[in-house]
Design brief:
The complex is a heterodimer of chains A (about 400) and B (about 150).
Chain A: H1 6-11, E1 19-20, E2 23-24, E3 26-27, H2 38-51, H3 61-81, E4 89-92, H4 95-110, E5 116-120, H5 129-138, E6 141-145, H6 155-161, E7 166-172, H7 184-193, E8 198-201, H8 213-216, E9 220-224, E10 235-239, H9 241-246, E11 257-260, E12 265-267, H10 281-297, H11 299-318, E13 323-326, E14 335-340, H12 345-353, E15 357-358, E16 360-362, H13 367-373, E17 378-382, H14 389-406
Parallel strand pairs in A: 3-15, 5-6, 5-7, 7-8, 8-9
Antiparallel strand pairs in A: 1-2, 4-10, 9-10, 11-12, 13-14, 14-17, 16-17
Helix pairs in contact in A: 2-10, 3-10, 4-5, 11-14
Chain B: H1 11-18, E1 31-37, E2 42-51, E3 54-63, H2 66-79, H3 84-99, H4 126-141, E4 146-148
Parallel strand pairs in B: 1-4
Antiparallel strand pairs in B: 1-2, 2-3
Helix pairs in contact in B: 1-2, 2-4, 3-4
Classes of the chains: A alpha/beta (about 400), B alpha+beta (about 150).
């Protein structure tokens, strides 16, 4: 790993110096949201202190400055995921809104009664509910490709579910509840062989690995900024230009129009057609700052370091009597979901919090996954590039002690 | 190691979590209501046997965290032999204790239930403690088949 220095990275994240209940913070809830580097915080302060005005409107200096920074951030996103053009990058509030946008524009136009939408058994609610709503509106049918007990997609069954009726495949790139990384290249190739477009939900994958949308050849790729060390309230839809051109707008309003009369409206060009109203200007610009920060470290360096962390945590977790890991896919990102014999995840969460350790306890917005494993909830430690093996030791010692206390 | 949590996880709570009282299905129950906390997945079914307005028996089934299990276990013990009005009054006092709205709560009037007073320092866990009582409330009012904390 060329030049990856976790201690140097930790210094860039001011919140990591915080004390929680008198203890050093051990932040292991990164799959819910990541903490922010100083560069992201600074970019927001800089904008509001020196450069802020509305974008795409004014001729005055500040509007030009804001617009330049805003559009530069779009270019940074484009380069980060290797999209072909800035026009393919649409800013929305997050991955959830991104999927809703595709469902209500591409979906509503192209999916009819009797058609099928194919997802997997490990989806987050945000890649289930928008399709259920679309099915209710259109009479289409939602199909679910099953997974095995390790939390891996059963690919042969997925392939069998690709039919003449399938009009869209929407699959999670990396599962938030299990850590599973899906074989997305294979999925996309198989769907494309039948002329079916594919959406990838990249909310979890994007902070953990290099993503190249042209190499993947996915038709849509969506993600949230806050899981990529950027602000909350901002997210991205990547769509192939030809598809986006043919889609109707999502919301109507300012910025998304070219000409309005009371008789008719001419819509704006891409990407503005999908960006009605004043956007989250500072948050888009700060997302650009997060991308600069990550690009300097290198996504492949981050992936390699996190893979080491996950291996270390998995070995340590397996040494604990009564701990069951939920999700043991061969291809897996830095997420450790687990249950402890007879100790409810909420008790685990509260007890670890008293030691300064932040984990998630609950259903992780993936109730069907919980049902599959027959548990009401799991505890989940999710790692980021600023976590350390020492922190994993603190976690494991905490788990050991709480098992003793519960008896 | 968990010194800070002693107020929340008292030994009585661990005891009721390990060995919940009245943990059984009641045949021929007069009232049966399900309680559900969708945020954490805690789920319980409460059974009551009534004689007029007196609760002659109470039992439950379900799964939840230590706080919610201990709370429902303690509740089924304490409401046996109480009238509906007395049980409602306990619910009011319990609610005041766990949400901390009253400055001076008479913990003695709550008897064993006072071990759950610690949850008021943990807002995220208050619902774990009150799920049992909201379920009892619905059962006494005989107005719902299932209640939810959300």
């Amino acid at each position: 790993m060329s030049g990856f220095d976790v201690n140097k990275i930790r210094q860039d994240f001011p919140i990591l110096a915080e004390k929680i209940r008198g203890k050093d913070l051990v932040y292991l809830d990164n799959a819910a949201t990541c903490q922010k580097p100083q560069a992201v915080i600074d970019s927001i302060v800089q904008l509001y202190s020196h450069d802020y005005a509305n974008v795409h409107r004014g001729v005055h200096t500040l509007s030009v400055r804001s617009t330049d920074k805003f559009e530069a951030a779009r270019t940074k996103v484009k380069s980060f995921i290797n999209a072909a053009s800035d026009k393919e990058i649409i800013f929305v509030r997050g991955a959830t809104e991104a999927i809703n946008l595709v469902a209500q524009t591409y979906g509503k136009t192209n999916i009819k009664a009797g058609d099928e939408i194919l997802i997997t058994a490990m989806e987050h609610h945000s890649n289930i509910v928008p399709w259920q709503m679309l099915c209710e509106q259109t009479g289409a049918v939602l199909k679910v490709a099953p997974m095995n007990h390790k939390g891996e997609l059963i690919y042969s069954e997925f392939e069998q579910l690709l039919s003449d009726k399938t009009k869209l495949v929407s699959v999670v790139h990396m599962s938030n509840a299990l850590g599973t990384i899906n074989p997305v290249k294979k999925i996309i190739a198989a769907a494309h062989a039948k002329g079916i477009p594919v959406l990838l939900d990249g909310a979890q994958a994007i902070p953990h690995m290099a993503v190249d949308v042209q190499e993947l050849d996915c038709d849509f790729y969506v993600f949230s900024g806050h899981k990529l060390y950027g602000p909350s309230g901002i997210g991205v839809v990547y769509g192939k230009q030809s598809l986006l051109e043919a889609m109707p707008p999502y919301q109507g309003g300012g910025d998304m129009i070219r000409k309005v009369t009371f008789v008719e409206t001419e819509y704006n060009v891409l990407p503005y057609k999908f960006e009605a109203g004043t956007p989250a200007i500072a948050d888009v610009i700060a997302l650009g700052a997060a991308i600069d920060y990550l690009a300097a470290i290198g996504m492949n360096n981050i992936a390699a370091y996190e893979s080491e962390l996950l291996d270390y945590a998995t070995v340590k977790a397996k040494q604990i009597d009564g701990l069951t890991i939920i999700g043991e896919a061969e291809e897996k990102g830095a997420i450790l979901s687990f249950t402890l014999n007879k100790i409810h995840p909420h008790d685990i969460g509260t007890m670890l919090d008293s030691l300064g350790i932040a984990i998630r306890a609950g259903h992780h917005c993936a109730m069907p996954v919980m049902d599959f494993y027959g548990v009401p909830a799991t505890a989940r430690a999710s790692f980021a590039m600023y976590n350390t093996k020492q922190e994993i030791d603190v976690l494991m010692a905490g788990i050991q002690s709480l098992i003793e206390v519960f008896g | 190691m968990f010194e800070d949590l002693r107020d929340l996880y008292q030994e009585v709570i661990f005891d009721h979590n390990r060995n919940p009282r009245n943990f059984r299905v009641m045949e021929n129950a007069d009232r049966q209501v399900e309680g559900f906390n969708p945020l954490c997945g805690d789920r319980l079914t409460l059974f009551l046997k009534m004689d007029g307005d007196v609760i002659t028996d109470a039992s439950f089934q379900g799964s939840g965290c230590a706080i919610s299990t201990a709370s429902v276990s303690l509740m089924t013990e304490i409401v046996k032999g109480k009238t509906e009005a007395e049980a409602q009054e306990l619910f009011t006092k319990f609610h005041e204790m766990t949400t901390g709205k009253e400055e001076h709560i008479n913990l003695e009037a709550l008897g064993k239930l006072a071990v759950l007073a610690g949850v008021r320092e943990y807002p995220a866990r208050v619902k774990c403690a009150t799920l049992a009582w909201h379920t009892l409330d619905a059962a006494l009012k005989n107005e719902a088949n299932a209640i939810s904390t959300e």
